[in-house]
User: Fold these one by one.
Assistant:
Number 1:
Amino acid sequence: MLVFISDLHFVDETAGKHNIPTSAFEKFLTNVKVHADKAKAKELKIVFLGDIFDILRTEEWFKEEEVNRPWGNNTARMRERARAILTKIEEKNRDTFRLFEPAAIRERFENIDEVETVYIPGNHDRLSWLIDDLKTRVIELLGLESSNPENFQHHFSNTEYGVYALHGHCFDEFNYEGGPDRTDKDYKLVPIGDPIITELIAKLPYKLMKNVEARADLSPEEKENLQRNFQEIENVRPFSATLKWLLYQVEANRDLKEIIEDTVDEVVQEFQELTFVKKWYDRHDRWYNPFDTADKIQGVLYFLEKFKVFSTGKLLGIANKLTELFGEDELVKGAAKLFSTLDSRIQYIVMGHTHDPLKKALSVSREGSKLHEHIYLNTGTWRKRYHECRDGSGFIGWKDMTYVMFYTPEEKPNQHSLPVFESWSGSLKREE
């Protein structure tokens, strides 16, 4: 039996209190045991499919010069700061990590002969496999078997279960800088998404609260609400809706409109001045392609720079146009192409990254009496997500918990003697 979860985004909480409570993992492991016992599983692998440790969404990097940040020159100072961030993440999630200690897992699943956890890194935890000290600590925190060669790879494959899994950021032009071969060297390259998360998404509320402290008289409760609302911007889905989320926050805080506008200007200018960003533009901005990756980013930054100039109505029009540029889910298209390169026994491709739990039937064919099905599955996220209302009136948030399980034909007998899957998802709507 295989179980996949992803995009847990354990954080140090300097850029927002977004950690998932330990009780959620207790429920998850309890449910997995019920299913494993029912299937009389002899083995169990729990696969963490990327973005487990969020080393990017933190304010700690603002204590370092650009050269010492993850998009700098891979300095000793950068590695030291990354270690400190992971240590803080561990402190904030200590009880959760205890659930995955080998002794705790063995005791919980005592009826199963072989139980193991496997870790496939994503883009937010890129440093967790690049820096040896972090790698060693991740092995301990997730209860990994250090000798298992499946750990810290960029994909997981098992023909017995008909599964090929990867985090999926290699199909996202903002979060993958490498080529189609997807080698270690490709995954080591820093994508533009890294500084976007830290230098725009995390820095905006960080700078805003500093400016509010200096220029506005708000009660502690008002400050807390303002900070929390702006720190939630990275949880808005789809990503293109974050521009409308920002407009929504401006409209909800009209008395602070000037401070918010000045802060947005400040953050955008600092982003544009980053050495990494300037060099990235030089490599990616192509005059012969009017809708390249650089143009999309520049379009978003243009939108942000016009906060003071355009009316809300005009900005909403620009935001809608920018949304069209981001198109359909690239991971679905990537999965469809990927099937043609894989072992014919693979019938499921599993990814995370998008935070959108999804199941897509891609193709089906028969070879005599043998059935071939190709299905794409996305494990979503356990983090709270905000969804834009259909009528454009605002956003509504709730939490989802999604996990995907796979069984061999022996564990789940079926007509075609094929591996089968179950996807379980629950939602929680509660104001906290």
Number 2:
Amino acid sequence: METRHYHLIGICGTAMASLAGMLAVQGHKITGSDENVYPPMSLELKRLGIPVNEGYNAENLCERPDLIVVGNAISRGNPELEYALNEKMYYTSMAAVVKENFIRGHHSIVVAGTHGKTTTTSLMAWAMEKAQAHPAFLIGGVAENFNASFRVTSGKYFVIEGDEYDTAYFDKGPKFMHYLPDTVILNNIEFDHADIYRDLEAVKFAFSRLINLIPSQGHLLAGWDSEIVRELAPKAFCPVISFGTEDGATWQATNIDFSGEKTTFTVCCEGRKFGDYQSPLVGMFNVKNCLGVIAASEVLGIDRQAVQAAMAEFQSVKRRMQVRGIINGITVIDDFAHHPTAVRETLAGARQKYSSQRLIALFEPRSYTAQRKQFQDDFTAGLLHADKIIIAGLFHPERYSKETAINPQEMIEQLTAQGREAEFIASPDEIVKTLAPQLRSGDVVVAMSNGSFGGIHEKLLRALNESLPAM
């Protein structure tokens, strides 16, 4: 393959940083720039030896790269993008590069849906690895079993997280439309990304287009507990295999038990017992994630015992219920939850795992969905799983009006009225200053944001460590 110089504008995005690493593995020269440089992707790029310019500047393109990859967070007015357009430089999207450089010619396994994509993609890749299929993969997070968010191999399979977010400023279609799907695991569909989709019908149309891409020899693994997935599945021109916890699914999880050190459940196929499984993951949503992988693995002919072992040995994904530290009996957890359902299921899973302990939820309204008024009641209901709740300030309040933005004070009043201890504290530093002295042994703190949350996890752990008596 001819080596090229790729420059990635917005290189610290989860998918963009992974693409940078994949291109480096192919032997290409990689440079990039970003203004939001924080872990885990900044650490991944440093580990890979890929230089990152902090801030956008036309001078970053002075070497005239062969190809510019424009991240989907980049919009007109960006100095590097404007320079590239004026100079008629060749540019494209992350998804298009992944398709042409890595997916074409391979069996593409696309994991899609509103929730659970990252965990399910990681679990699918790990199951195939345990079965010695050696898949290539691209995941929207760092899979702890691999300690990586990507891998390039010469194997038959490419496993990829199919994001429904838009591709680039010049391509407003979902990224997953580029991924040439052969096998699709579609977990669930809900309204999300209100900055991209005007309503639920627009979301449904996007996923129906993905289903329409699957070739007749491919397969759709359909999450049957999702009403919208059930509605759209008949549009497929390929076989549809359903999975879920409710009656009517071909693959069903039963006898689910969260009480032990690991979650255990029985899998039935067409009403007959298929096998018993255990997983360190918590929450009903993770049982469904596991079930989708088990069903897909059987369709693909992956060794059953290897899949069973993979479930038990799975180490999850960074920023998905990730324990960042335990100090003086106080557990601090980092989670990516930023949709009402994700907040609800994350805290419900934490409640199952830490049933006898005080559960404290820290919530940063950072994503477009997390900051919109239309989701306020749903977020409030999800936060009720915690004993104590602290809501931080909106990430970009100037983007919203009083009518369109969530109102944290109203949420606090509603939570307090339902017997919860709740308060609004705008900044992460103030949250740490207020919360740290209140914590006691046995407390579990779950910080939820799709961004860095101002480094609140490290700051809280540091404050707890400093409060320990001198030895």
Number 3:
Amino acid sequence: MHAARRHSLRRVLLVYELAFIGLVVVTGAIGGLWSYFWQQTSAESLRLNELSHTMQEIRTVLFQQIQEVALARLREDPAASDIHGRYYRQIQGGFNALRRRSSSRLEDYAVQAMQEAYGRLQDDLHAALEDPYFLNRIVRLRAIDQQRERSLLGGFDEACKAFEQLVSQQLATQTGRIERWTRYAPYVLPVPVVLALALLVLSRRSLSRNFVKPMRAIIRGTERMSAGELNHRLPVAGVTEVALLADSVNRLAGDLADSRDALIESERQAALGALVPVVAHNIRNPLAAIRASAQLLEHVDDRAESREIAHDMVATVDRLGRWVSALVSYLHPLKPHVRTLPASELLEAVLKLVAARCRERQVTVERRAWVTGALVEVDADLMEQALYGLLGNALEASGDGARLWVGLAATAHEVVFEIEDEAGGIPFIPESAGLEPGPSTKRFGTGLGIPVAFKVCKAHGWDLEFAVIDARGTRVTLTAPRKLESDENE
């Protein structure tokens, strides 16, 4: 992501929070509008139905008024006026109810038209009931003629029909609105769900692109850096905080690389400083011997003695050559190429290498606790060199006709190699670091057998230990992880 377009994690989260809040508001608004619409629609439908029902009640009461008042007049009932007044008040109450429930001018006008028509109807009814001929006709028919009723109610009926038509139109409008809302509901109601899913997908993709993936790259990169690849650089991507973290780690890796290079250079100088005395020590004595032998050759006339001196000079040069070879081998980095081998096979090969020297020195090698089935993962060439050096040290330290013991033991998880001599015990306890040779009784050693053994064992992850046994001799122990056959078959 370009630096100019990079945003902080706080801002990104704020945007998503506001978006979710907006989604909640939209969902609430849709739900509120839907609830408000149904409430208003239901209330309006109920009001219109009540208007229609009240109008029908007024009309029914009016018919009752006409019939009962007419019969009361025919019977010359003195309470006719009271009956008329009671029905009149009841009908006026109905009109007042219509006015209270009215919500528009058109409804007010329609109620007023019915009320005015009712007033005219009352005047006509009063005049008709005062007409003797009409009363005689009622007597003859024993009821008010329906045709006469229609003539009396004509204006009122028209006003009622107009009002009923107005109410029907409004009910039809309400029904149309309900149908439209019902038709659009399947499309409107899923909108919040769709918006929520879209927001979830977008937020997930954005967080994955701007935070999760860059953090994953940082984790993988720091693992590579911790493994030693300090030249590796993390991608500076994602939100501002992650990009700053990657940039800081890159700068830290660069500083560590510089410090490592400086430390390596310092260690190299220190190693050279430690190596120079060792080289001088191991070269000065052979050179001095060669110089002394050369000086002797100038004054020796005996041919046999000359050959002996020459032989010693060659042996000294060979010893110096072996030491240089061992030194180069020690200083060279080791990269074991391991394979699974029986531990006994490894030790048998070393014993064959020293067999001739043992015969020459009449040294007896005895075996103890010899296990043949234990497997180890090892670079045979390197480990044979280490074991050969350790066994050679024991052989050189021992006198002619001495005894050596080698052993091979195994536990559930380890294989133990042992080399033991009776040369009086090693005069020092070797350490895994350093090239300084310790005191030795050997005439032809290089002084690097033990350091090489330590280095080879360390490269394999094995342990190497030295112990003095009652001032009688030295025991060397190599402990290796055991390779189980079930592990090899996996």
Number 4:
Amino acid sequence: MMEHSAGGHGLGEQTTVEQGNFLGLDYPHVDTHTIVHVMRHGEVHNPRGILYGRLPSFRLSVKGRDQARAVAGALADHDITYVVASPLQRAQETAAPIAESHGLTVHTDENLIEAGNDFEGLRVGVGDGALRRPQHWWKLRDPFTPSWGEPYLQIAHRMLAAVNAARVAAVGHEAVCVSHQLPVWTLRRFLQGERLWHDPRHRQCSLASLTSLVYQGDTLVDIVYSEPAGASDPSVTGA
């Protein structure tokens, strides 16, 4: 169905996730098979190249809409019974064609929202923008929490809550949760038992990619990564 891959490794390498009860739920049948596809939104119209974060009214670009349709096509034959998205416009627009192809409504979950970031609204590319100004350097003092925004652990916990809710809503079928790069990648590292702080240039979470969580009953048995809309550069800010 999709490629298996591990965080921090090249595309196509296999991940084996040790079985464990990550969500603490009990189903009537332990053999119930459920998949939650955690999706990153498509490319955004962002001509100024800023870190838009949670700012409103950032819509998908033409390419982003094509990416969303490509994923909807890839999932057309899947047993999708529940679609939910971050409240931000780009996530809602990404979810729309998937929901439409299955005759579903797009639900909204605040837990899927982009990470809070003190650099929101600024250019933060390497060698230019806000990172060249000394008044911003203090925000970089702690990369482990991190000091410039929402704590990684908080992101992981709220994303897990969203996945939890989607899995219950689609039990025995498949769900799609549309979120954002950092929350999706943080969730994956958390589930794989990896440290949450990381080099953002090495995230395996392309635009419109799927990080699919496979469950038997309440047990996570596999994490499957795929790129139905193609690969993108994780180091491009504001993509």
